[in-house]
Each structure stands twice: as C-alpha cells, then as structure tokens.
Amino acid sequence: MATPLTADRLVTALRAEGVKVVEHPGWRTNNRNHKGAWGPVHGVMLHHTVTPKTMNAVPMCFSGTGDLPGPLCHGVIRRDGSVHLVGYGRANHAGGGDPNVLQAVIDERYNDRPPAPHQHNGSAGAVDGNPHFWGFECENEGNGVDPWPAVQVEAMVRASAALCRAQKWGAKSVIGHLEWSDWKSDPKGPDNVVSMPGLRTRIADRLTHPASWTPGTTTPKPPAPQPSGGTRMNLTHLTRTTSTPLLPDSPVRIYWETEYADEPNQHGAGGHSVLQNADWTANLHLFFSGLGPDEALQVRHIETTSGGVAEEGPLANVDGFKDKGSVTRVVTLTGRIQPTETLSFEVTNLGAATVTLLGARLMMHSTPL
Ligand SMILES: [Zn+2]
Q: CATH fold of 7-207, please?
C-alpha cells in the first residue's frame, strides 16, 4: 500500500530509470478522479493496446474510445520504446478483478504467478482495480503473433521498475491485465517475450542495480562504509621487548622494534617516531621489573619537528598491577600530530631507584588530518 507518486516524481522516477519520457499535453490533469478513488496504489499493470502497427495509440489512450472515456492508462509504451504520459490519477485500465489477486500483490506473496483470477466472463469483477494500479498500455496488435520490439519490452521493464523503486515495491507488484481479470489476455505475444513471470524476473534483476543501470554491464560496488565521515582510520600496533634502564627522574623516549598492524609510512621503523598528520588515541602498555606497586611513573607524548621538540603532552600518571615479578602499566593518551611533526612517547621513573622497562606495546587508532 502506498500513496501514489506525485506527477513530478513519476516523471523523475521514469527518467532516472533511463525511460524516454514524452509528456503528452494535458496529461497531468487528465483523469477519472470524479468517478471514484485514486489510491492507495498497490502495483503496476501492463496491457496491450490491440492497435495496428501503423497506428499511434497515444491519442486514443488519452481521450478514450467511444464507450470508454480516457485516460485508458497512465503511460503508453510505444513500439520504439518511448513512454508517453497520458494521464495522472484514476484511469480506466484495470477494471474489475479478483480480490485474491489484489491481496497476493499487496503481500507480494506468490511464486511465478499470482493465483488465477476467478470472476468469469466479463462480469464486473469483485474489486475495482482502477484506484490501485498504475497502468501502461503497450502498443501491440495483441494477437499473439505481432512481434514485440526488444526496445519496447526493455521500456516495459524499466517503467515498471521505476515505479517499484519509487513506491518501494518488489517485482511481484507488477502484474499483467490477464492476471487480474479472467477474460483478459494482455499482454500477449509470441515467444514468451512478454510473459509476466519473465518480465518480473527482469524487473527484479533491475531492482538489484541502481536506476541508472544498463543491462549487460556490471555495477561498480559502492565503496565500503568508512568511519569518521568517510575518512579512513588507521591502526598502529608496535612493540618493543629490549630492556631499558630507567634512572630516577630521567625521561626516556620509547623506541619501537616490531610493527604488527600499522599502515605503511605511519611511523619511523626502529625509531621512536610513530605518526604524523593525524588525530590519534593510543593505549600504551608498559612492562617493568624493579618497580614497586606504589612507585610512581609518568608518561607523556612528545611532538617533534625538524627544529626539535615542539610540544610535550600532558603528563599521565600510571599505576597498574604486579604479575610474576614484572609490573604492567597501561595508559591511554590522545592528541593531534601536525604534518610537520612526529609523535613519540616518553616514560619517566619518579621513584628513588632505577627500574627496568622490560618492554612496551602501543595500540593506536589514528585518523589523517
Ligand atoms: Zn488491459
């Protein structure tokens, strides 16, 4: 169930789907709304015009025939694949049909075909389809022999897909008139080119692609979603395992030895510089021996330019836990490092005795500036 698209949105949706749209003069106000409801809409219905090859069916579908006033559909799909809009609103195209079919279309619950319609021999049908279906009349003699040009069938697929896409329906919301009323045979043609299951398969396939899709081409995959509004986040994972003595009150820069997950060119291999030109947040794990549980440490990050230290980060006090003679301490730091700077980390032993930094591990997320 859906509210019908506005006339403007109908045109936009068709054009987005690559349909060659021709707006027949007066189509936007040509309707049968004074005779009954228009909407809610549940689907799209395809018809054939039963007109000779040489006849332009557009004027007839706009105005109607002697006993059936127009519009006779919303769009006429000509043999050349152009789609001529002739009505907006209630149109005389669907007529009476089977409520079970309507329910199957609303639910989009059926296999190849909706249940066969049952209300026989030209009776009015139990349900009026005119409020509920968009309709396309397709130029064809309707005798089962007259061939359907490929460009016309493609336009039928595209016009139907455009409405399904815009009304948020699947291909099972598209039926033929013959599936609605048991005395109808349209659309009918040779070689199954306009069989409704076949058309629905093509429409369903089309709906898996963007509206601009050209059959036979591959659709480029959309880029993978990125964090931080499309900016890639990098992961840096560095360790060192060589012991380093920490004398009292003597800051020591941490040099890194092994990289696990960092991106190329994100840190100075074997050095202490780890990053340039990024916002960053780091978890720094430090492993010590000789450090008492109550003894204090401080950790900070250092921003260095070619001219020397540009900025020392705020001191982070560290505490932690003792495990098998070594003490692990974990500290989280964050900052922004400019393109002209490099980032490194420094640890200072604030105790009275020398302790040993047994190793360190840095796990850092960064987002390029
Ligand atoms: Zn029909």
A: Lysozyme-like (3.40.80)
